[in-house]
Specification:
This protein is of the alpha/beta class. The protein has one domain: Spore Coat Polysaccharide Biosynthesis Protein SpsA, Chain A, CATH 3.90.550.10. Helix 5 packs parallel to helix 8. The protein starts with a strand and ends with a helix.
Length: 237
């Protein structure tokens, strides 16, 4: 039976902390629907002591509704997202981080809105943030540049998760990025394909288990990718 919802959870270097998040996620899904799938992406770099791959494999072994993706990394977050999406078989695919900064209840909210309004994509914006001034400023700059380059898409927070995508919409996407660009890549293609997109407010919590992976070079990379994507659009007209 095809799952109603596949939840792709990014677990990179989450360690044992992801166990609590997965348990809570499973309970929320059981309450909301009869048939679901969870894809835990625990990809890793070789020659590290990251226990996450074994943690997610153990979780998958104990529940046949859970899939574990544990490959040697060939890229960054975007590569992880694409490797998780490939394993998602549901009629709707949700993407969320497993570090606890995002509440899983927002996936359920987004899923209901997606069905109620017959959307292609439901995404989120971080209306309340507890991740510090540095991350806030980086996000503001990035979203400002996005809106300047890609007018017409009424989305306030390009990199926010969770994101939910229908199977039909996902099959029309052509995601190729391997770095950190996948959130913007999804929304740029949604704009070009004229998808029906809705955005809901969420709370973004403090990251207590590790330091953020987002640094100034990532912002420069984001902006460079946005410029290249805009140039590509002009050339393809």
């Amino acid at each position: 039976m095809v799952p109603e919802l596949s939840v792709v959870i990014l677990c990179y270097r989450a360690g044992r902390g992801v166990e609590k998040f997965v348990k809570h996620t499973a309970a929320c899904l059981d309450e909301a629907m009869a048939n679901w799938q969870m894809v835990l992406v625990g990809n890793y770099f070789q020659e590290t002591n990251d226990i996450t791959p074994q943690v997610v494999r153990d979780l998958a072994e104990n529940d046949d509704r859970i899939e574990a993706v544990t490959r040697v990394k060939e890229g960054m977050m975007s590569w992880d997202v694409r490797s998780g999406f490939v394993e998602a078989t549901g009629e709707v695919i949700a993407l969320i981080d497993g570090d606890g900064q995002m509440a899983f209840r927002d996936v359920i909210r987004g899923y209901r809105l997606l069905n109620d309004e017959n959307c292609d994509i439901v995404t989120t914006y971080r209306a309340e943030r507890h991740d510090g001034f540095y991350r806030y400023v980086i996000s503001k700059i990035y979203n400002l540049v996005f809106r300047m380059l890609f007018k017409g898409l009424d989305v306030r927070d390009i990199n926010s998760k969770p994101k939910l995508i229908t199977r039909n919409a996902y099959d029309r996407l052509d995601l190729k990025s391997d770095d950190w660009f996948v959130d913007a890549e999804i929304m740029i293609q949604a704009r070009r394909l004229r998808f029906k997109v809705r955005e809901i407010p969420v709370t973004f919590y403090e990251l207590k288990t590790r330091k953020s992976f987002v640094r100034l070079p990532a912002l420069i990379e984001f902006i460079r990718n946005l410029v290249f994507a805009r140039i590509k659009e002009f050339r393809e007209r």
